[in-house]
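Changelog-linked ticket: zinc ion example.
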Amino acid sequence: MIEIKCILCGDKQRTSILFKKSFSRRDINKTVFSARRNPDSVHYQINKCERCGMVFSSPVISSGNILKLYKNSKFNYQDKAHLLSKTYLTYLRKKTKYSQKSRILDIGCGNGFFLKEIFAKGNKNIYGVELSKDAVSKASKNIKDRIKLTPLKKNIYRNDSFDLITCFHTLDHVIDPNNFMKTVFNYLKPKGQVFFIVHDVKGLSVKVFGEKSPIFDIEHIFLFNENTLKKLFLKNEFRNIKTFKIRNSYSFYDWLISSPFPLKIKKPISAFLKTTGIGKMMLHLKAGNIGIIASKRYQPKRLGKKVAKR
Ligand SMILES: [Zn+2]
């Protein structure tokens, strides 16, 4: 197991334990590392940095082992992908400078469900990276060759080459977010934008369910709130940072199934939802996701001016 430090404070961190670890060795398997599953409250020790409010898992298994687990994980949320794409596209149009000409990279793109939507609307400049072999194998034919089976790292694309980099529910899983953000920064064109979505550690799901909230999960290393998320982007040279709460749309039935209520409560309610037809109705909730938009800091070449001053 390796110790994780606060990514904002480093050695100056002042940590306290929020929740004790709740897993055993046998919980560390590829099923637990496949994104969508029934909430099972399997998590590492959850710590909070009292200096900055960052919440994080520590100690965690090695990054080599984590990568192996994701490589073999299953892509198991195909039936929800269209709802997710719809949500992501709405915010993309509303909040970013995205146009049909934007060269776009989606990190942790799964089977490319979001890229596929953009492609279908006429943008052919789409690229993705993804760890899960299963997810990439399920990508549609016309976009499969745009997806690289790799973690995000240096030298897989040219620097300064993307107008927009998106990353949905992946940053929370990254063991070294500062390094991750540096790589993202380098791949962006000057003035390029990022659009990320992460879980909100101050969101509704944590307020209602506490430790039972599905965001306290062995897959998550760092859990952000709007403030700590902003600080991470600021620390890594991003500017024009804006955060906002994401409204997700699922059926009543899906909200219930993904909630951590005990089975004896879930069963009668789901039977009621089924017989009344209410289960299929859509419910739009800000249940605990944060969106963030930020720009690469534009660095004008000021060398000439400095020389002139002297
Ligand atoms: Zn801290």
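Closing comment: Example verified and attached. The chain has eleven helices and 13 strands. Residues 6, 8-9, 13, 49, 51-52, 54 surround zinc ion (CB under 6 Å).
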